[in-house]
Amino acid sequence: MKKRANKVQEEEEETLCCCEYVNRHGERSHVAACCCDCEDLDDVCDRFLKREPQKPESLSQVTEVVEDRFRVPWLWGGARKVDLSVIPPLILLPVLLHLAALHFLLGIVVLTALPGLVLWYYYITHRKKGRTLFFLSLALFSLAYMYYLFMTEVLPRGDIGLVQLLVVTAGVIFTLVALVYTKREPGIVLPNQELVHSTVTYYSPLADRDPAVNGGTQEVTMTVLNRAGSSAQSGLELKESSRKNWCPVCRVVRPPRAGHCRICGVCVLRLDHHCVWINSCVGQSNHRSFLLTLVLFLLTSLYGISLVLQSVCPRQHLLTALLYCPGVYNQYSTALCFTCAWYSSIVTVGLLHLLLVQVINVSYNVTEREARIALRDKTARSAYWGLVVDTGVYSRGFRGNWAEFMTMGDKLNPPSPAPTDLVALVGANKRKM
Fold first, then answer.
1. Residue 14 confidence class, pLDDT cut points 50, 70, 90
2. What is the C-alpha separation between 382 and 364, in angstroms, rounded?
3. Which of 60, 140, 265, 408 has CA atoms 20 to 30 A from the CA of 299?
């Protein structure tokens, strides 16, 4: 019966026109009816007019309705859903930059408030552990919009040669290619399918298990392990290691240095951190390409900023042009270019700090996740206000650490270790029964 219902649903989805879609209730709808029959919005407006208190879940329900109905027509499979977090950067960035170009005081206010707004939004989303495309949209649109202004405002001034234009264009293209490669996969931990023996359901939670999840039950994949030649001491160590590395969400035993990302909902090999600018984790598979993306972006940005400042402030030294450029606000075009150079400089400084931290961590063979845990537990040596964190666990020296980093992508997706501690727990539970 279930297969038949799924088949009917698939047939209905195949017959959707370019302006139709299936809403969150499983009903067919049309993009033209986006403002019709919204009970949640009607209830909010009715309570507002009657001066009655709103329900605690009213705002979230209205937001879900708006997100579900905001769609664009698509030729295949009906209208596609658009994430609302993509839209604010597309509107706010051009408006704020053009506003900042009107006067230098407005420029100071905007260029000070814009990073503050971004950090505030990051704090809100990071606290809720939710996924958002806002930062990725801001990064991509900033790169595209800066290149657009470079082509339309700086290039017509006649100060940029063909070789310089090709270098900037190549830098933008290579940065985008490296970003696409970085977003492919961070290196997800896969279970060891060869050792799967059976599935057992526990009605008592594990030590690191939240009883509120899954009704207090625990489904665990049991494995068979050859223990010939192992001593009792090594068995206890293996048991303790497996219990510590067991992920109750992904139901796998994580290899050393792997970690679970609560935002992506997966375990990642050699997890470094979840980067909001790429909306993905940085792990064993994409860490090298992540650093390459940062390097390419920084080189392209620094070169582009230098070309813009040479064009709008030709009489000033390059290092002092950002701080003192007389007459730059006399013409709106030069003021806009100068404002964009300041915005690009702020972004460049932030990403330069990120690259510096990454280079230091690689040099000490420490991931960002390990550094945070070590600082929290006070088990690491830190210097320079926490910029350098040395746990002393995996370090092999400067050359050895970089050699390991450059070759770690060659060993991807190793099978998950067998959870041998769970076998011991089965025996303990049987003895109690």
1. low
2. 11
3. 408
Residue 361 and residue 405: Cα distance in Å, rounded? 11
Place of tokens 């208190």: 53
Q: Which of 333, 350, 353 is nearest to 97 (CA)?
A: 333
In the structure encoding, which two tokens stand for residue 65, read together? Answer: 């309705």
- Residue 339's alpha-carbon distances to 85, 111, 149, 344, 380, in angstroms, are 25, 8, 11, 9, 42
Are the CB atoms for 302 and 167 separated by under 8 Å? no
Residues 342 and 348: their CA atoms lie apart, in Å, by 10
Query: How many Cβ atoms are within 10 Å of 194's Cβ, its own excluded?
Result: 9
181 and 286 Cβ atoms separated by less than 8 Å: yes
The predicted structure's pLDDT at residue 74: 77
Dihedral-angle region of residue 411 (phi above 0 means left; psi in -120 to 50 means alpha; beta otherwise): beta
Residue 282 and residue 274 in contact, taking contact as beta carbons nearer than 8 Å: yes
Share of the chain above pLDDT 90, in %: 45
Nearest by Cα to 31 from 76, 86, 85, 68: 68
What does the pLDDT read at residue 400?
Answer: 94
Catalytically active residues are 275
Mean pLDDT of 156-175: 94
Which amino acid would we find at residue 353?
A: H
- State in Å, rounded, how far the first CA of the chain is from the last one: 39
Alpha carbon 210 to its chain's center: 25
Q: How far apart, in whole angstroms, are the C-alpha atoms of residue 299 and residue 174?
A: 11
- Cβ–Cβ contacts within 10 Å for residue 93, how many? 18
CB contact at 8 A, 257 and 271: yes
Helix H segments across 56-133? Answer: 58-69, 87-100, 104-128
Question: What six digits make up the tokens of 62?
Answer: 């209205």
289/424: higher pLDDT? 289
Q: For 314-364, write each residue's pLDDT tens digit.
A: 888 888 898 888 889 999 999 999 999 999 999 999 999 999 999 999 999
